[in-house]
Amino acid sequence: MATSGKQSSQWTGRSIPRKEDLRLLQGQGQFMADIATRPGTKEAAILRSPHAHARILAIDVSEAVAVKGVVSVVTGQDVLAAGARPLVVAAPVPADYYPIAVEKVRYVGEPVAVVVARTRAIAEDAAAKIKVSYDPLPAVLGIEEALDPGSAVLHDALGHNVAVHRHLRYGDPDGAFKEAAHVVTGRYWYPKVSSTPIETYGVIATWEQGDTVTIWANFQGPFSMHPVMARALGIGQHQLRVIVPPDIGGAFGIKISIYPYMVLMALVAKIAGVPVRWLEDRLEALAASSSGTDRLTDLTAAVSNVGKVIAWRMRLVDNVGAYIRAPEPGSLFRATGNLVSGYQTQNLDVEAIAVMTNKCPTGPNRGYGVSALYFAMERHMDKIAALVGKDPAEIRRINLIPHSMMPYRTPSGGYYDSGDYLATLERALERADYDQLRQQQQEARRQGRLFGIGIAVGVDPSVSNMGYIDIVEPPEDRKPHRSKSGSGQGSHVQVDASGGVTITLSTCAQGQGHETVAAQLAADILGVDPKDIRVIGGMDSSTRNWTIATGAYSSRFAATGAVATFSAVQQIREKLLDIASHVFEADRDDVQWVSGRAEVKGVPARALTLKQLAGIAHWDVASLPPGMEPGLAVQTYFTPPTLGESVDPEDRVNSSGTYGFMADVVAVEVDSKTFAVKIHRYATVHDIGKVLNPAIVEGQIYGAALHGIGAALLEEMVYDDQGQLLTGTFMDYVVPSAPDAPDLIIDHMDYAEGSSLTTPLGAKGVGESSTETAPAALANAVSDALGIDINQLPMTPNRLFHWFLQRESLISQEV
Amino acid sequence: MEPISVVTVDMIINGRPQQYEVEARQSLADFLRDQVGILGTHIGCEHGVCGACTVLMDGVPVRSCLSLAVSASGHEIVTIEGVKDLPLGQRLQQEFLEHHALQCGFCTPGILTTMAHFVAHYPKATEEEIRDALSGNLCRCTGYHNIIAAVSAVISSRHDDAKR
């Protein structure tokens, strides 16, 4: 690959104002609901299940069909009759998943019928007239309940509720446990949370010539779902055109799981014979879009007498809801390469289980599978510290991988190319003024105040390896020639006859500023102003270059799409220089690119501008070097070179393209009357390689941290024992608002040019970052404040009050 | 089914007098988007919590998802498309741009309308008061920090103006 990190950086690395903001600040963004529809497009409303688990006995649509303005009413049986096939799932279990209920409903909110009408209001009116008779079945909600063979079964063909059960072993965990001076156990519960992008799902589906369909959707990728959708529709991939609008109103992983609705609306449009638009409302989104899993973790650490963890035994149980919808069970395995986080442990025993229950199906959510893992591990590190009598900072110093061991191969296959974890921790302690905080804590305690300090560190994986999910099957069951690997992302750059530069991305940005960063990179290479570069966002699967890894998820742009763009613009410049050298009849090595033009070295008067050279490429083939193609466009792909392999026979996989590192130090005070948690100080230091745009990176960290803080203090999808969702509105599912948001002290470790071995630009992902550490840091701080062992989130005042009372009563019993 | 009643509404939208026939049950947000055809007002929750749909009615922020179009008849409406014509509108937009106070931009129209009213009426607001005023607008991207910084900058620039 011809890219190199060495580049004059007039623009890259600076916080320039974003290109995107000019339209967004004027209300001129183009979100899904703003896309113009074809004349004749009708609106869809979905009738959803009021039961968590029931057999559908009959659906009477006669009254609904009779409503004036209704075009069609579609049920699960209609969809089957239209030839729909189940959506492929990653887990090899007979648990068919259709985008609409067939025979049975398995969660409250599951689609049961779709009404297509002239307006959404009419469609909703008509949906209320559909009569469905249900035979309710017992609901299974909890993880332990789902594991109980005596519980009701969701998928009859499976006969139980366990979708995945794998046992992974690395190194010699049994030997390590025999040697251990201490064995520390703990059980942790991570809540089902959803990042709830403020823009809900939206889909428009329209068929052309009967056999090709175009679907507009605010889908964030990965386009590995494209073949899944095509297969469910019974068409070839070339017959399925997916268009993503230039603006997506937040996604955070949630907008991966829109794809069943894309299939559903395509089927409905086909049956109804009209283009169909569906805009999800918030109640639908909360009940039936997606969330992360609730996770039960049993953790046992084998610890040496100095506090070093020599082995981990983990039992991870994810509740994936009613169906194991792809890319689940990614939540269990997304962190395979970084199961040991930043610690030196080489022995691992992992039991990974996914269960199905009568809750909304899950999927990727910011910090996918990692927030829950680090919540357990980082709480556990504090327990270990207490046991061996060390400070929480010291226990981490003892266990972190030293810089001298980089690059580092984890026992489960992760390849940490670079990073100084100890220095990052020290910087965070320094920025938080840790020693001063401890003094402040002593003073506060003397005054009877509940003041606590928490630390959490973590390796931040980005750019998922398309192959990691192969681990769901044991090695002997993996099919030859069917393995997956890599994480390819495309880019396309064109220069028109007037020298205008247009970059066409396929990255489906959702606010990360891809247009701005792409323009910054290109501006440096071509010597032009980013303002003069046009960048087209969104995606179109029929006209843009892409791979199944395409999209914006797992914090991948800086290490993939940005690199592909960088490489494409470099190739454009090479071609411009080739043309110039031919025109000047100069040796190619004597022509260089300076300030936006090609000039002969030492003879600045002999120069051609970008505009002149572009003119030649388009207008004057005769002036081009012999054999050179006319025009000026380049398309590229990039995949991190370290993602070249799938899961090996020992279940090792380098599951991510880059691994950053972060250390969070937080101080809290818990109100002794209300038990509200107030964040007193929050410092977070990141080692993410090169920073392409500091303001964008800082914005990502702020957003990521607040998602983690939300999970720590506020957010949880709560169901009652009948499976009714109790947090079905934004009044009940409480997400952080401005008064909940702390100021952060953010810092970065310096980047030594060229030190990243995995990406030419040296930039690692940062989009999830503190979402993965904030829950643990806060739980450690609140545990410290209250003198209790917190093993469950969110830490609502009500819960804290009860846990604190339990502690007080235990103390009084001991007395 | 009951016939749906249709009502004539008159209102000034972003400075221009408008007359439309609307269903009595239609929300102001749907009316602005679907009938008037201005798409900057975003619908995020339709139950009055997220604030994305906030517009100004006679200068006061209202949830257009919880207001009926008929209730706006006879009033003056300003949406995000009209914020630039408000006294501090362009300054707010400029500070948002410079402070990276938006990411996906979906909640931004409601935040700008809300804050346009706030900075005009609370020229001495503290950071805590800004946070409080923002508490009715949910943003899932920014962590709010830069929004507060942008609004603070507008307020402090007003102080600077006053000193001159």
UniProtKB/TrEMBL annotation, chain B:
PROSITE patterns: 2FE2S_FER_1 (PS00197), 2FE2S_FER_2 (PS51085). Residues 7-83 form the 2Fe-2S ferredoxin-type domain. Pfam families: Fer2, Fer2_2. One of its GO terms (molecular function) is oxidoreductase activity. CDD domains: fer2 (cd00207). Keywords: 2Fe-2S, Iron, Iron-sulfur, Metal-binding, Oxidoreductase. Pathway: Alkaloid degradation; nicotine degradation. Gene3D superfamilies: 3.10.20.30, [2Fe-2S]-binding domain. It comes from the Bacteria. SUPFAM superfamilies: 2Fe-2S ferredoxin-like, CO dehydrogenase ISP C-domain like. This is 2Fe-2S ferredoxin-type domain-containing protein. It comes from Sulfobacillus benefaciens.
